[in-house]
Amino acid sequence: MSAVTGPSIFEKFTITSRDGSKEVDIRGGVIDFQYFEDLFSPTTTAIVQVANTGNTIDDQGLYHGLPIRSGERVNFKIKTPVDAAIGVESTFDYVMYVDKVTNYVSDRQFEGFVLHLVSREAITNSQVRVTRKYVNQTIDKSLQQIISLLDPLQVVQFEKCENDYPFIGNLRKPFTVAMMLAKKAIPVGSKSSSSGFFFWQTKNGFNFKSIDGLIKNAVDKKSTAQRYIYKQTMEDGYANPAGNAVRIIDFKSNKNNDLTESLEKGEYSSYRMYFNPLTFEFTQPQDAIFKPKDDVRLGHKEEMPAVADPENIPMNYMAPRILTGVYNVGTLDVGVSTATNYNPFNDVAQGSARYSKFFTYDYNILVPCNTNLTAGDPVYLEIPKTTTQSAEYDSEQSGLYIIKEITHKFYTNKSYTSMRVVRDTFGTNGQK
Predict the structure, then answer these.
(1) Residue 118 near residue 45, CB atoms below 8 Å
(2) Closest Cα partner for 329 from 320, 337, 318, 317?
(3) Which of 122, 158, 228, 241 is the most exposed place for a label (fewest CB within 10 A)?
(4) Using an 8 Å Cβ cutoff, are 211 and 196 in contact?
(5) How many other β-carbons are positioned within 10 Å of the β-carbon of residue 238?
(6) Region of 170 on the Ramachandran plot (φ > 0 left; ψ -120 to 50 alpha; else beta)
(7) Furthest CA-CA distance within the chain
């Protein structure tokens, strides 16, 4: 078991001017560097705090001498401390671009500022628009064509969809369209029972994967997922798991079920009311109630909860969430058409329930720096029981989790990885 938190080595950290004529090594001035990935973010981001006391360009500081005005390229290569438990050292080699500069201060011998960095694709996203019509193809194929507008060579990990969604770009940004498509996509073989995708970027490229796809991947990699142990004291009596166990430095629970929130988001049931603009008809009451179908889970299959009162009424007895909308019909074909372009009747309600369920259990953990981990990866947590009788782990809280957010933090004397991990159910028994 290990808890290495030593300083990382900045093998490279340079800023290149927008015209490419000047490049400055700022390794000695970086006092705080934080890099971010998120399942809900189509771009990677980072923050660099710089304290410059030595670098000058034409007898000026970096800010005015380069100058730094946004758009500059930042190249960094960072070697993290070797962790014996993990078995390999990680090297973080990436390129980002200055989006903005804040907190600039200076005097005769010192200047300080904060660089806010984004990926190259985030800048391109603000420059291009989606203009054409997309028809007669699945959502993943449409998305691949849209991402090629940003960078034809960008690495993209796509999960195939079984449904298409005809639409017109309407001069929207690529990321805007991508996030819209993610909510409407259905993975192959699910038949609307598991709608809901994420579109996000990591240091390895773009990802477009379903909730069920992330869970199945986690279950398949259960034996090889990075394992983390949490306990405030690590006495010898604690039963260490076999394999690559690393200590959790800090552990915080953000959410452990939230009944009212789950009800409001339609996790157990919802009421659908849709309008057909061609027939002027609404959804019939007998067809309006929707109860989510069973799905793939990270832990145990849970029974439908009920309020602990004499009636013991299940949570899906009534539909607390009301979904409304207009059928997308007859809008993309030439001439008069009654064809349905998109039917939200089943998959919108299922997707809403699935997104809500995915974040049922939500924790923040701080661990030794591991830049091999990215958003969307599985990790296995071992949480001890609250007992004085034994040193066993809690089989309910422990188990597989998926990284929703990850931050790699590099300071002058320490380096950490902070993660927000989520799961849908209690238990260690992942189901395929």
Answers:
(1) yes
(2) 337
(3) 241
(4) yes
(5) 16
(6) left
(7) 81
pTM exceeds 0.90 for this model: no
Helices (H), 16-153: 62-65, 120-125, 139-147
Domain layout of the chain by residue ranges: 259-357
Summarised one tens digit per residue, pLDDT across range 320-345 is 777 777 777 665 655 555 565 666 66
Q: What are the E-state strand segments in 5-162?
A: 9-16, 23-25, 30-38, 45-52, 73-79, 91-106, 111-118, 133-134, 156-158
Question: Omega of the bond prior to 305 within 30 degrees of 0, cis?
Answer: no
Helix (H) or strand (E) holding 407, with range, is: strand 399-411
Residue with tokens 């209690």: 426
Residue tagged 């006391």 (tokens): 53
Across the range 383-399, mean pLDDT stands at: 73
Q: How many CB atoms within 10 Å of residue 389?
A: 6
For residue 318, what are its two tokens?
Answer: 């009534």
The alpha carbon of 81 is separated from its chain's Cα centroid by a whole number of angstroms, namely 25
Enter the DSSP assignment of 356.
H
